[in-house]
Amino acid sequence: MIIDRRLFKNIDWILLILTLLIVSLGIVNLYSAGLNQDTGRDTPLYLKQLYWLAIGLGLMVFMTTFDYRYLEKLAYPVYWLAVILLITVILMGKVVSGSKRWLVVGPMVFQPSELAKVAIILALAAYFYRQERFDPLSWRELIISCLLVLPPFALVAKQPDLGSALLITAVASTIILFVGVRWHILVTLIISFVALSPVSWFFLKDYQKQRILTFLNPEQDPLGSGYHIIQSKIAVGSGLLWGKGFLHGTQSQLNFLPEQHTDFVFSVFAEEWGFLGSAGLIVLYALLILWSLQIARSCRERFGNLLAVGISAMIFWQIFINISMVTGMLPVVGIPLPLFSYGGSSLISNFIGIGLLLNIRMRQFLFFSPTL
């Protein structure tokens, strides 16, 4: 493989530095979150995350070594691979807390739903790129794009993992709205959604209904379904302006805060570093998203443009949902904070996305057509 040396001059150091700053803060925060949870573990949580980080960095570098436009031809094979893996999870996945979300391959355990997020972005980017038109979507094109989203959505929801299923929908919707939908179609969809939303209640499972009721009134069951969000809000609020200090968060160090190394990792950070620390982390995330969108805006090639928008949406919606969830503004749905929460599958999928953004930036001024 021959790599043009000019590409190294176009490495996006701002994107890379923002990513490494966030993930470094995440490792430090995991050290605190896992300090009193690692008793009896062979390897501390933060060290395991460092191992996944090494793999993620390797994959990020790999994603920059080829012209991203080759992925347009591989988009559908990757999509079907993700679908097959999701079916495999349903048939023979590892059950944890009543959900089948993980596949075990030797010593490794990973979530195919994380691959599905990237696969959906690739598939939609390839589909809209091949339309070779810039008019707003018709009903036919909209239905076809929705049919691409439906299998991964249904299979992830079946696990059940409603949070990831909704995230897939949010990312796909962002790409579709970016491409453009005719006004009468958009208005029809909005009216239909509002009208059918009450009906969807009857299709939810009991635990999903309970999550919504808990969101509306967590105090109705403070030691049961409302425990997670109540403890999370206490942790976030008790940080006040400056925080309690590193390793001095009472909610996390005394293990009052459940899932504090995954879904509620932001609560640990907010308690120890306070409003100012939390605001600083959110600013870093905002800069990361805005810079990712700037990469999408500056890309003069449609497939790369759509790909960058999709990756930006994937990272943004994870941030928005997780922080809204742990602060009580959304129901608890189990979405990790990207580059921050513990978890190899999430970290790897986000680093693949960052690698693609770097790839797009590096090649934005190259206009040759690759020989496929």
From TrEMBL:
Its EC number is 2.4.99.28. It catalyses: [GlcNAc-(1->4)-Mur2Ac(oyl-L-Ala-gamma-D-Glu-L-Lys-D-Ala-D-Ala)](n)-di-trans,octa-cis-undecaprenyl diphosphate + beta-D-GlcNAc-(1->4)-Mur2Ac(oyl-L-Ala-gamma-D-Glu-L-Lys-D-Ala-D-Ala)-di-trans,octa-cis-undecaprenyl diphosphate = [GlcNAc-(1->4)-Mur2Ac(oyl-L-Ala-gamma-D-Glu-L-Lys-D-Ala-D-Ala)](n+1)-di-trans,octa-cis-undecaprenyl diphosphate + di-trans,octa-cis-undecaprenyl diphosphate + H(+). Keywords: Cell inner membrane, Cell membrane, Cell shape, Cell wall biogenesis/degradation, Glycosyltransferase, Membrane, Peptidoglycan synthesis, Transferase, Transmembrane, Transmembrane helix. Pathway: Cell wall biogenesis; peptidoglycan biosynthesis. InterPro entries: Cell_cycle_FtsW-rel_CS, FtsW/RodA, RodA/MrdB. The keyword Cell membrane applies. PROSITE patterns: FTSW_RODA_SPOVE. Pfam families: FTSW_RODA_SPOVE. Belongs to the SEDS family. MrdB/RodA subfamily. Peptidoglycan polymerase that is essential for cell wall elongation. This is Peptidoglycan glycosyltransferase RodA. It comes from Desulfobacca acetoxidans (strain ATCC 700848 / DSM 11109 / ASRB2). The lineage of its organism: Bacteria, Pseudomonadati, Thermodesulfobacteriota, Desulfobaccia, Desulfobaccales.
